[in-house]
Amino acid sequence: MLKIFKIVAILEGVSYLALFTNMLAVKPTNLILYKTLLFPIGMAHGILFVSYIILAIMLKFEQNWDYKKFGIICLGSLIPFGTFYVDKKYLQNV
């Protein structure tokens, strides 16, 4: 299950950065392309975010993570590049 979580964490981070890129780079230059890309990127990010949180909750009990580690891992999904930090710091041995 850790391998699945690691994959979801990386994909969630990439989708988060894709959303930011769409908002910051595409929106000012091409509004039609921005609106076209917003739904599929946003939907993928939403599904990956929910999957990340559910897997983190499941792994908290399976791996006996303490609340501090669990909180940092969950907080990593809210901060840009946070999932990459979580992958490097907490999921390195997978």
From TrEMBL:
Q: Name one Pfam family in it.
A: DUF3817
Q: Which residues form the DUF3817 domain?
A: 2-90
| Compartments it resides in | Cell membrane
How does this protein lie in the membrane?
Multi-pass membrane protein
> What residue ranges are annotated as transmembrane?
7-25, 37-58, 70-86
What Gene Ontology terms describe where this protein resides (cellular component)? Answer: plasma membrane
Which terms are listed as keywords in the entry? Cell membrane, Membrane, Transmembrane, Transmembrane helix
At the top level of its lineage, which domain of life is listed? Bacteria
Predominantly, its location class is membrane
Q: Which PANTHER family match?
A: MEMBRANE PROTEIN (PTHR40077:SF1), MEMBRANE PROTEIN-RELATED (PTHR40077)
What's this protein's name? Integral membrane protein
